[in-house]
Amino acid sequence: MHRQTLLDRIFNWIPVLLLAYPMLISPFVLVSSGGEDTAANISASKSNALNQLFWICLFLLVLVSAGRRLLNTFTVLRSPLIWLLLLYLLLAVTSVLWSHAPGIAFRRVVLQIIIVLSLVISVSFTDDARTLLRRLMLLMNTVVLLNAVAVVVLPPTPIGHAGIYTQKNNLGAVMALALMFNLYGFLMSRGLAKRFGMLIISALAFGLLVLSQSKTSLGLAVLMPAIAYVAVGMAFLFRMNAAVLLIFGAVTGAVLLTFLSLLTRFGFSDLSLFLFNDETYTGRTFIWAFVTDVISRAPFLGQGYASFWATGSDSIAFREAPGFVILLIQAHNGYLDVMLELGIAGISVLFLIVLTALFSAARVVALDTRIAFLCYSLMLFVVCHNMLESSWFRSFSLNWLIFLLAALLPHAVVRTWNNR
């Protein structure tokens, strides 16, 4: 292997910088537009110069530091996942033509292209996948420790601790992801001291997750790694495809739950009452009813990429949304938001992206079961988390970046393995 230059070292840290932005940088330098009032909702439609400057500079840094790696772009283009991502972005760019806010839509789609390409290039061409994961674990552990201090110093919000973030759900999601990274770290570590350290950080992350009172993240942080562990274990032992196992399990589980629901009359609202002590999934059913109505107006191509929420006072969301829905900047369901923006065309491409990512990770099982476990844990978490929150192709949302990372890692692992 050639001796690393300064640009090589910078390039290998790019994915860490990408994930550090939503976790460490933006909470301190960006003014939140979390949808607490109508003024905040309108302000979210405006551009943020600091945000744009960061991503443009980072993308230029990616291109400069990548250097000769870009000559091997054709190897990355062999992946169906990359073509599907490009297809979604092409659809998003085209949707500017029918967007109600073309200026805002164009600005946001350019940002999304920069983010996706930066992560695709930096992860696909990383020198060593395992070293990259060690750097990401260092970032995660730093975030856990910083939030631990914040929880001690800062008072909680009325509905749970938020740490360094503005909302408790943000802390919950970050701690859930940190917990999964540390579970991987525990499996990878050798020696009692390192494993004990991983256990301490894991316990701290789990404690912060509980204090955040983010029930969705808490449940998924426990359930998704367990499912991933079983799927990867069975795939490795019985030489089966882990993606097929997961899809078969999901379909079987859905059929059984539907049958039990009909048999016991334990329905959708009953589940909400059990989980959230509320029959509306903490008001989400009102949001979904409004969004479903808007989707029916343009079912095939949608309203345009990022052209519905936070697009100013002339938007449908601002003029027609009932009650508290006017304050929001998302549908609290990633799949509905995709249909809202790009219709059936967009959701079809998204489903293909998810399926392709699952099958891509299956290749890693034979090479490294621990990385396969991490990839599936992260992907399943994001897929399920989007049932109650929105992050698909949503700016620099942490969950979206994490899914991209997990989907791209298999290519990096195979490349690392072949270069040994």
Describe this structure in words.
Helices cover 71% and strands 0% of the residues. The protein has 420 residues and is an all-alpha fold. α8 packs antiparallel against α9 and α10 (215-238) packs antiparallel against α16 (369-385). The longest helix is centred in the last third of the chain and has 29 residues, at 334-362. The protein is globular, with a radius of gyration of 21 Å. The protein starts with 5 loop residues before the first helix and ends with a helix. The relative contact order is 0.14. It is found in: Membrane.
Helix content: over 70%
**From N to C, what is the helix and strand string?**
HHHHHHHHHHHHHHHHH
Q: Number of DSSP helices?
A: 17
Number of domains: 1
Which key terms come to mind for this protein?
globular, mainly alpha, 420 residues
List the helices and strands and how they pair.
Elements: H1 6-29, H2 38-43, H3 49-66, H4 73-76, H5 80-94, H6 102-124, H7 129-153, H8 168-188, H9 192-212, H10 215-238, H11 242-264, H12 268-276, H13 284-295, H14 316-320, H15 334-362, H16 369-385, H17 398-418
Question: What does this entry show, briefly?
Answer:
The chain is mostly helical and 420 residues long. 71% of the residues lie in helices and 0% in strands. Residues 31-36 have low confidence and may be disordered.
